Input
Amino acid sequence: MPPKKKGAKDEDLGLMRAARFGRVKNDLSMGFVGLPNVGKSSLTNLLSGAAHAEAANYPFCTIDPNVVRCIVPDQKFKYLAETWKPPSVIPAALKVVDIAGLIRGASEGAGLGNAFLSHIAAVDGIFHLVRAFDSDEVIHVDDSVDPIRDLDTIECELCLKDKETLSKVVEREKDKIRKEKGLARAVDPPLPEVVESSFEKCQKLLDSNTPDGANGEFSSGEVEVIRDWGLITTKPQVYIINMSKKNFIRKGSKWLPKIQKWVNEHGGGQIIPMSVEFEQALVDLEDKEAQQAFLNQCTEEAAALGLKGPQFVVKSVVPRIIRSGRASLCLQSFYTCGPKEVRAWTIQKGTLAPQAAGVIHTDFERGFIKAEVANFDDFKALHGGQPSMAKVKEAGKYRQEGKTYTMQDGDIVVFMHNVTASKKK
Output
């Protein structure tokens, strides 16, 4: 059976805990990480809806990272677009990078070694793809399928690279102090307590091959210090388990409980079982009726095994993967709607109204006056089929918010601003 789902609140807390070490930007990216031939390029193709990455059955077929933009599945946005029916419709997108396969010894230069690690350092979150299917046609770099061994290999290499980075941190921090205080190179200044505690906590986690990002009770001061160190294992991780089509349909694999146990012992994280084989078979049926017939057939196969109920209805997991990647980066959407365009804009959770306005145009942030905001659920319940906020306003559900307003996921917004040209001196 698939791993037991965590509550949404627990999952959100874990994601926020990992994402706090990342960059504060709206254009963040996820990167696929895994051994060669686990399905990274094939899944990247599926996520993007096009064959962008060369999917070939040999190690290192992906040398330079392939970057694709995946449309974020969003029922709220779809509803707004269908309501306004504008000529321009622009959904939110998630940037995903297909990174070359890693092998044991990468931290010391084996395989693509340092090139791989520089590519993963450039992304903001990790899709950790693990192979849990047997196939004589798809070779395994270690000649046998063992997801736990593969998980250990990847995590060990990432931790080893972070240990190397951490070994240079102390001297770098001391150089920073020397420069700030004008001290000679020969002087050995003491490190601030927050730097020492940050170093010790990170070192302890890395020594046990545990990612820094999802672990440890770091203070806000320690988070600020660690963020500057550029550690790979502070990035949020989503574990994707690539199973056979047969096991995906029956929602079971001998490896899933073992993988769940491993993840729990290494800081926890979201696990998404899926099957590239199944998803590819579905996509190859371009006709929607044929796709639905295929899904119905798969659901019937599950039912024949006694697996009945909503949880055993077979459907694509691709939308969930995209949404999970976006959630791991703590990204959310707000919408602007009108007769000419309906658009979803991407911001990070916790963004204030002026900064959200700045995503549209810097002048909007500079001359921010107020935000006129409607909650999506209020709009859907009240608009009466009309592409207008009139009935929402009549019901008193159309709000005016100021500079301290924290944007909520799904806000429908009109920003008021006023920017005057600076006077000539």
